[in-house]
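In practice, a research group might receive sequence data for several interacting partners and want a quick structural hypothesis before committing to experiments. The following worked case mirrors that situation: the sequences arrive first, and a predicted assembly follows.
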Amino acid sequence: MKTLYIIIPCYNEEKVLPITAPMFLKKILQLNQEGLISDESRVMFIDDGSKDDTWKIISGLAKEDKHFTGIRQSRNRGHQNAVLAGLMEAKDKCDITISIDCDGQDDINAMDDMVRAYLDGCEVVYGVRKERKTDTFFKRFTAEGFYKVLKWMGADVVFNHADYRLISSRVLQEFASFKEVNLYLRGMVPLVGFKSTSVYYARAERLAGESHYPLKKMLALAFEGITSLSTKPLKMITGLGIVTVFLSLLAAFITLLCLLFGTGVGGLWWIALLVSFFAGVQIICIGLVGSYMGKTYMEVKARPRYIISERTEDQ
Ligand code: UDP
Ligand code: MG
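A structural hypothesis for the assembly, expressed as C-alpha cells:
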C-alpha cells in the first residue's frame, strides 16, 4: 500500500492549528481505513520559524499520535521555502505527498480524489479552486489577472491553482535537481512533466488567525513568479526600441512631406528626429544586452536538460 505524507507549512499559526490538525489526522485515518494509503502515512508540519507557540503545538501533537510529525526551519524563510523543505524531507519516506495550507481554506476532502487520481496513474494532481466567492473582489481580480499575465509571458501555470497539490515521490526525486533559489513552486512543478490532472474544490474562509499574504507580499510573489519563470520582460525591451525607431521614422516621413509641400515645420525639427531615432536605437541595444542576460540567467539556474519518465527495461 502507498504511503502518503501531508505537507503543511505553518507560520505563527497557534490559533488555527488546534482546529485543523485533528481534521488532517482524521483524513489520514479515513483514507487508511478505505484501503487507499498505508498506516505509515503522516501529517507533516513545517514550522517556518514561528514566533508564537506553533512549534510547541506541533511537538505536542507528535507526542500524542504517531501520525503527526514535524520539522522546524531555523528561521522564517517564507511559504514556498517551507513547502520545499517539507517535500524534500518527505520524498524518501513516502510514495505520495500532498501540500496544503494549515488554515483550512483548502477543502481537505479533495484529497480523496487526488489520491485516487494518483492510483489511476497520475504523478501530479493540481488542486484547482472552483470559484473565489470568499475572496474580496480586489483579490479575485488581481489574482486572475496575474495568471493571465503569467500565461502571456510564456510561463506554464495552472489557472486558479495555488499550492494545494499531490506530487509523487518519483517526481520529487527529479524535482530535487532543480537547484534554483528563487522559488515559485506552482510554476516549477509543471516544468518537471509527467502525467498530471486537476481536482476541483471550493475555497473557504480561513478558520482562525490572519492571512500572511497582504497586497505587498502578493505583489512580491507575482513579481517572483514572472521573473523566475520567464525572460520575456527583457525581450520586450527590444520590441519597445523597434517601436520607437519606427515612430521616429514615421515622424521623419511626415516632416519630409511638410517640407515638400510648404507647410512649414519648426526650426530644429532635425534635432527632434535625431534624438527620437537614437533613443530607439539605444533601447534596442539595451534589449539585445538583456537577451544575453536572460540566457545567462537561465544557464545559471542549471535546470536539468532532460528527465526520463520510463524505460523499457523497467517494464
Ligand atoms: N506561511 C509560511 N511562511 C510564511 C507565511 C505563511 O509557512 O512566511 C504558511 C501559513 O502558515 C499558511 C500558508 O503558508 O499555512 C498560507 O498562508 P496564508 O493562509 O496566510 O495565505 P493566504 O491563504 O491568505 O494567501
Ligand atoms: Mg490561507
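Before designing any experiment, note the following. The chain has one domain: 4-230+303-314. The mean pLDDT is 89.
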